[in-house]
Amino acid sequence: MAPKLSYLIDVIGLDVADVAAAAGGWLFDRVMDGWTATVLVSGEVDERALRIIGAQAQRVDALPGLTTRRPEALAVSAAVLRAVPQVREHVAQLLEIGDTEVRVWGGQTADGRPLRHRLSTAARAFKAQALLAAGGGGRITDSEDFHRVLAAGAGRLEVVS
Q: Which residue from 66, 103, 110, 127 has the least number of CB within 10 angstroms?
């Protein structure tokens, strides 16, 4: 079997501005490390903002095959986990299989562990441009905070904050 040339990362958020604000720098740093990134959103897809940080975009409702995706890493908005049972089920499946690193932003899951990603200088610059393109803005910090989810089942994917 040939070695894998690129790792896959999926990011699921409310919209492009949500993804850029919460995970845009981490996503940029991963893409610069050679990862292939796909952002899945339920809202309007602003591809320009995502191209700035190196990701491609797809609408969640345009992906009936969401459950067949097997990325090596996944970051997901706590708001999406709360609101969309299919995404919760997908994340639980990935955790059950055990090959995917799962991060949550905007809330904590029952067994989540705090995780801070320190942004590279380039990530901060590109994140700022992506936020402007997505119609947002604001102060860019040195890091982005997530909670790493370690296991599924028994209500562990319930967002507690």
A: 110
Report the C-alpha gap between 105 and 25 in whole angstroms: 13
Q: Determine the longest span between alpha carbons in the chain, in angstroms.
A: 46
Q: What is the pLDDT of residues 31-60, one digit of tens each?
A: 999 999 999 887 667 789 999 999 988 776
| Residue pLDDT, tens place only, 110-151 | 566 788 999 999 999 999 999 999 887 778 999 999 988 876
Residue type, 74: L
Q: What is the domain-level CATH number for residue 103?
A: 3.40.50.10320
Counting the structural domains of the chain, the total is 1
Q: Cα(10)–Cα(5) distance, rounded to whole angstroms?
A: 17
User: Partners of 74 in the beta sheet?
Assistant: 10, 102
Burial of 80 (0-12, 13-18, 19+ CB in 10 A): buried
User: Containing domain of residue 65, as a range?
Assistant: 8-149
